[in-house]
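1st attempt posting a full record on here, be nice pls
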Amino acid sequence: MAEGIGLYIDRVIEFMPRMLESLGETGIMLFFAMLAAILAGIPVGTLLYLTSEGQPTENRPLNRIINAFVNIIRSFPFLLLVVAMQPFIRQVYGRATGDPIAASFPMVVIAIALYARFVEQSLNEIPRGIIETAQSMGATTWQLVWKFLFVEARSSLVIGFATATISFVSYSTIMGVVGGGGIGDFAIRYGYQRYETDIMYTAIVLIIILVEIFQWLGLKLAKKLDKR
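the predicted structure (as tokens):
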């Protein structure tokens, strides 16, 4: 048994450079997805909330358009979304596979739609009294959002972001199916296709550890921000 463990360690050391490179590629994809979720997902989700029925800036036509975009992207099987975006990515970036930046394009699209829905749900959980208080104080829409809605929903927004990020990790592994790089691609290329099951399971364990880290950080930060 000791000999088997030693052999396994030797094999892990042999594949370690490529494994670390794959983790770096996954990190690049996650970075762009998380950035898109923050910079675009939050505004889109907030707009969904503000333009919905009964809200301060109700706008049914705009709400329906944004809702349609979010629903279509979220219901689209991610692998098919990746394939459908290949021509667009080639046109914009020059290549569609084998590069973590190219793989980030579909990740960005799904990140915006996914986190936008989390943001909308978080804002919908805010008691109506908070909005009425803000309006009675003469708050503008901008002040309502920044000084009341986001403050009240900050803990829920963080938990939603952590949950979304975990989904991004899963999506990044799917990119391996189309040669998009990352730890998922490593597991398929160096593990599954070569029948190196020990290397494949090692990559899976790394993915699980990555997910647990994001989950722990999200819950920790959300608990710290929750002042109730």
